[in-house]
């Protein structure tokens, strides 16, 4: 896959870490979306990474309007689930673009703005009832205490796809 750069949007740092790992492995520059507009030419081919919020990938529409998005990595806090990944909302123009899910993390202490009270409500909802299984217990623990699941191994499918010509 021919791309010129990695472009990302990160709220609490997990997506930025994945972008940095990808930049290191591919030797491509990585730019935050806000800076990419001045660093890259319009319609430059890029890999886009964004964090998940309410079923959408933050910054993706803006990135797609400015760049030629060749692949997308959605970074979330839940375990990878192909069924969930398939349901993620992609703009119509990107329906044929490869989509990867990367488990990032959750850092409630790093949330800002509207996301702090929104996630506080979500934490109450998720932890209201006793967990039914180990998966629910792990999710409740993540909401209460945060977690970091960034893994270089999670990038293997992305790197393999980028290596295709």
Tell me what you see in this structure.
The protein is an alpha/beta fold and 165 residues long. The protein folds into two domains: 5-105 and 148-163, Rossmann fold (3-Layer(aba) Sandwich); 108-145, no CATH class. The protein is built from seven helices and eight strands; from the N terminus they run E-H-E-H-E-E-H-E-H-E-E-H-H-E-H. The protein has helices at 14-26, 33-39, 60-66, 82-87, 115-127, 134-145, 156-163, and strands at residues 5-8, 30-32, 45-53, 56-57, 68-76, 99-103, 105-106, 147-148. The strands form two sheets. Strands 1, 2, 3, 4, 5 and 6 form a six-stranded mixed β-sheet that branches. It has a two-stranded antiparallel sheet with strand order 7-8. Helix 5 (115-127) runs antiparallel to helix 6 (134-145). The mean pLDDT is 88. This is Flavodoxin domain-containing protein. It comes from Lawsonibacter hominis.
Low-pLDDT runs? none
User: What is the highest CATH level, the class of the largest domain?
Assistant: Alpha Beta
Number of helices: 7
CATH topology of the largest domain: Rossmann fold
- Judged by helices, strands and strand pairing, the structural class is alpha/beta
In total, the number of strands is 8
CATH architecture of the largest domain: 3-Layer(aba) Sandwich
- Major beta sheet summary: 6 strands, mixed
Shape: globular
Over the alpha carbons, how many angstroms does the gyration radius reach? 16 Å
Written as H for each helix and E for each strand, in order along the chain, the element string is EHEHEEHEHEEHHEH
**What is the domain tally?**
2
């Amino acid at each position: 896959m021919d791309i010129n750069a990695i472009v990302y949007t990160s709220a609490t740092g997990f997506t930025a870490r994945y972008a940095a790992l990808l930049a290191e492995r591919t030797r491509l520059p990585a730019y935050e979306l806000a800076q990419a507009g001045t660093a890259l030419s319009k319609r430059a081919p890029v890999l886009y990474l964004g964090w998940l919020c309410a079923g959408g990938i933050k910054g993706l529409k803006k990135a797609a309007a400015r760049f030629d998005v060749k692949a997308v990595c959605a970074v979330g806090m839940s375990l990878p689930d192909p069924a969930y990944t398939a349901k993620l909302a992609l703009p119509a123009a990107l329906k044929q673009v490869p989509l990867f899910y990367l488990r990032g993390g959750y850092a409630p202490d790093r949330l800002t703005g509207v996301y702090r009270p929104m996630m506080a409500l979500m934490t109450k909802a998720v932890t209201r009832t006793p967990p039914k299984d180990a998966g629910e217990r792990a999710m409740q623990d993540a909401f209460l205490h945060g977690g970091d699941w960034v893994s270089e191994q999670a990038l293997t499918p992305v790197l393999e796809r980028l290596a295709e010509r």
